Every structure is written in C-alpha cells, then in structure tokens.
UniProtKB/TrEMBL annotation:
It comes from the Bacteria. This is UDP-glucose 6-dehydrogenase. The keyword Oxidoreductase applies. It comes from Kitasatospora viridis. It catalyses: UDP-alpha-D-glucose + 2 NAD(+) + H2O = UDP-alpha-D-glucuronate + 2 NADH + 3 H(+). One of its GO terms (biological process) is polysaccharide biosynthetic process. Gene3D superfamilies: Cytochrome c1, transmembrane anchor, C-terminal, NAD(P)-binding Rossmann-like Domain.
Length: 472
C-alpha cells in the first residue's frame, strides 16, 4: 500500500476554519464518517488496517452499499480532499483531530465488548503524536471505557494537550450518509474547554446549518446515553413483537394495535412494526454488552428489563418459522421457497446478525429449498450462508415457488405496484409470508395472493376464481 503524502495547509481551509482530520478504522461507521467530513470541507485521511479494504477506498470505491456513499467517496478521493492509508504515521503527524471508529465486537462468550481494537488504536496512535490534538472516540463502548483510555493517553503521551473525548455515533445504516451530515443530535462527553473547542470546530458546518442539537456532557454520561438509546430502540421493537405474540393467541390484529398505540404522542408510530426482530452490527451486540455491564454494576432491574428484550427478540425466529409452516399447510419439507431480502434491513448490504438470513437458514434446516434474492447483499449473504441458493433477480428467486417469504423490506418488493402481479405469474402457489409486516396486503390480495403476517389473521385473495362453475 503506497503511503499517502503529507499535504500543506491550503488557504481555503484556513479561511473557512476547516480542519485536517483522520478517521481511524474504516468500516461502516468510519468510511461514512470520513466521506462526510470531506463533504463538510475538511481535509481527511482514513486509516484502515485491512489492506484490501484500504486499496478499494483509496480508489474511491465503497466496500459496502450505503445510499449516497459511493458518490461521496468518488468525488472526494478524486479531488484529493479524502485519502486513505494503512499507515497510522500518515495520520499522526498530520491531523489536528483523530476520530476513532474501530470495531467493538462482542467477546467470544457473547457478553461484554472486546476492547482490543480501541485500546490498540489508542496505544499505537498516542506515542506518535508530537503536537497537542484531540482524539474523538466514536465507537460504541461500555461505560468506563473512555476513562480507561484517558489513563492510557496520559501514560503514553509525549506532549501535553492530547485530549480524549467520547462522541458516540447514532447513524442508522441505510441512511448513514444523511444521518452523518444532518444528525438530530451530536453527543460529546468531554472534560476540558480545549476539547470542547475542537469538537465544536469540526462539527461547525453541521451546527451552523441548524437542526442539530449539540449535547456536551461527561464521558460516562455519553457512553450510557448511547447504550440506553440502542436498548430503548430494541425494547420498542420487542414490545410490539411481544404484542404480536398475544395477538396470535387471541385472533387480534397487531397492526391495528400498533396503529392505536402509535397515535399516542407519548409512544409514537416509529419502530412499531411487528416482525422477525432487530439485527445488524449494532443493536444485538450493544444490547448484550449493555446487559452484561449493568449486571456487573449490580443494577438488577435494568438487567432483567434488558434480558427480557433479548428473550423476546430471540423468540421471533421460531414465530416466523411457525407462520411459514402454517402458510405452507403444515410442513416445509421439500417446499420451494422464494426468499426476498438478506440484509438485516432495507437500504444496506450489511448481513451481520441478519434476522432474514437466520430465517432462511432455519427454513433450509426444515427441509425447504430456499432460493434467495437481495438487491445489494447477495455477495455478503452468499459468504455468510452458502447452503441456500441465490438468484440475481427477485423474479428468478420466486420462479416455481410454493411459498414466498419476504425477509427484508426492500422497496423493490414492497413499493413496486407491478411486483405482486409479476411475482404471481412466476410462482407455483401465490402464498406470501411477510415476516416484516412490510407490504400493504391489498395489491397482493388483488393479484391473487394469500398474505400471512406475524400477529394478524391470514388474508385470502380477493380475486374471484376464474374457473366457471362445473368447469375444468
Ligand atoms: N455500523 C453502524 O451503523 C454503527 C453505528 C453506530 C455506532 N457504530 C459503532 O462504531 C464502531 C465501528 O462499527 P463498524 O460497523 O464500522 O465496524 P466494522 O467492524 O465494520 O469496522 C471497523 C474497522 O476498523 C478497522 N480497524 C480495526 N483496528 C484498526 C486500527 N488500529 N487502525 C485502522 N483500522 C482498524 C477494521 O479493519 C475494520 O475495517 C463499533 O463500535 C460500532 O458499534 C456502528
């Protein structure tokens, strides 16, 4: 990997009070953050240890799909405002502010976070710094981690004035670029006026545009607020999914229950769609790590609450398998299933902890022949779950199917008004199992489908049987 050359300060940068920043760790968060910082006008270097990823990024290409990201990467690597390197030294002597965006996966025991990436990045970076600067942690960490890292900074710093602050990230995958450029809040835990000045300067273009609240607090509060935000989102999803379970046992319709609840301003409609539960690279791991941490701290009530959220989420897969079995008339053995969607949610190619892929695997294990399509996640899905079949188009995936399962709510399947009729023409039996409660059943019913959704009675097609009485 060729090293990125140092660049002199440009007059434009000084005039606009723009900064030289580094982003250490260029995964989903770091790549998006680096591209967005360049879009704001800063000069940016992204540091990524994975050479293959780094080469791709340096060539201006996105290693994963996120709306708008490929365009930003191409534009800013071409202009030279955004560079990538696998050498930390390229960032250390150059940037005034260093974002830490490395991974915090779960420990192999599935409990707390592994902190070796954040600790490793700080241990490698700090001895290379010879000017005062600010390290801004963005990774999601357990409360107490920033304080531990601050002590490491103190031990290893060669010069005074190296600040460490924690600035957890709230972006949603599928809207990562938009959320980074126009976040609803920027949360920073810090301990000195110098650190505050640096954070205000790097986010100045966002704050000047309005609509973003800057919340400045202490590092522990910032860490807990991030964990609490993800826990609350997970709890909301599990709550409506628990109500879906109640509805299934009573013949009630959970979508009407959700609508009724969502109108109440204290509750709100977002995150109230019943389904197979939350997944992805954040909520499941963050909830597990937070549960582990609050248990360690001895917070009994919080531990029980968070554990229940996880239990409900885990139960959703079995509920979805049972729904598919009912829709198939009892058994999935030998059934051909056209499976739509593999990413953990629409708008991203991310298949980490994807409930859709887990469901595809379970259906395969029940003896079904699963044929899967996804608009953006085919390559990742194939690597993660090679035992099922894959097709390049949705219609190829559903061709000859006895059952179609909608696993991820991509607009390709949900909002295209032609899709229900086209898919009906391709399948053997028009039975839709929508485990995301994503489709409006009406156009599907009109195209001859029966529609099965979690927590509500099955709906039968509205098209009349074209066979004349006594005919055929
Ligand atoms: N993905 C999201 O949407 C999202 C949202 C909010 C917060 N977060 C948090 O952000 C952090 C990163 O998440 P992610 O999804 O981008 O993870 P990721 O695993 O996709 O990316 C981490 C990257 O850091 C690189 N890396 C590790 N150590 C390095 C080092 N010393 N120098 C340079 N590169 C290094 C890895 O090679 C990897 O590419 C996690 O703590 C996550 O919880 C993620």
């Amino acid at each position: 990997m060729r090293r990125a050359a140092h660049r002199p300060r440009t007059p434009t940068r000084e005039k606009l009070d723009l900064m030289r920043v580094s982003v250490i760790g260029c995964g989903h968060l770091g790549t998006t953050h680096a591209a967005a910082m360049a879009e704001l006008g800063h000069e940016v270097i992204g540091i990524e240890l994975d050479q293959e990823k780094c080469l791709l990024l340096a060539a201006g290409q996105a290693p994963f799909f996120e709306p708008g990201l490929a365009e930003l990467l191409a534009r800013h690597t071409a202009s030279g405002r955004l560079r990538f390197s696998d050498q930390l030294t390229d960032a250390a002597g150059w940037a005034e502010l260093h974002f830490l965006a490395v991974g915090t996966p779960l420990d192999p025991d599935g409990q707390g976070y592994q902190t070796d990436q954040v600790v490793g990045a700080v241990r490698s970076l700090v001895p290379l710094l010879h000017e005062p600067c600010t390290i801004v942690g963005k990774s999601t960490v357990a409360v107490g981690t920033a304080e531990r890292l601050r002590e490491i900074v103190e031990q290893l710093a060669n010069v005074p004035g190296i600040e460490l602050v924690w600035n957890p990230e709230f972006l949603r995958e599928g809207r990562a670029v938009e959320d980074t450029l126009r976040p609803d809040r920027i949360l920073v835990g810090l301990g000195s006026p110098e650190a505050r000045k640096a954070v205000e300067a790097v986010y100045a273009p966002i704050l000047a545009a309005g609509g973003t609240e800057l919340i400045v607090t202490d590092p522990a509060t910032a860490e807990v607020a991030k964990s609490a935000a993800n826990a609350y989102l997970a709890a909301k999803i599990s709550f409506i999914n628990a109500m879906a379970e109640v509805c299934e046992l009573t013949g009630a319709d959970v979508t009407e229950v959700a609508r009724t609840l969502g109108i109440d301003q204290r509750i709100g409609p977002l995150g109230m769609r019943p389904g197979i539960g939350y997944g992805g690279g954040c909520l499941p791991k963050d909830l597990s790590a937070f549960t582990h941490r609050v248990r360690e701290l001895g917070a009994g009530g919080a531990t029980e609450l968070l554990a229940a959220v996880d239990t409900v989420n885990r139960g959703r897969l079995e509920a979805a398998v049972a729904l598919a079995e009912r829709a198939a008339g009892g058994s999935l053995e030998g059934a051909r299933i056209g499976f739509l969607g593999a990413s953990f949610k629409a708008g991203t190619s991310d298949v980490r902890d994807s409930p859709a892929l887990r469901l595809a695997d379970r259906l395969h294990l029940r003896g079904a022949v699963v044929v899967l399509h996804d608009p953006q996640a085919l390559a990742g899905a194939h690597r993660a779950l090679p035992v099922v079949q894959y097709r390049e188009t949705a219609l190829e995936a559903v061709a000859g199917a006895d059952l179609v399962v909608l696993g991820t709510d991509w607009p390709d399947y949900v909002t295209d008004p032609q899709f229900p009729a086209r898919a009906a023409g391709a399948v053997r039996l028009p039975i839709l199992v929508d485990v995301r409660t994503a489709v409006d059943p009406l156009p599907w019913l009109a195209a001859g489908w029966s529609v099965w959704q979690l927590g509500r009675p099955a709906q039968q097609p509205t098209v009349l049987d074209p066979t004349p009485p006594g005919g055929a």
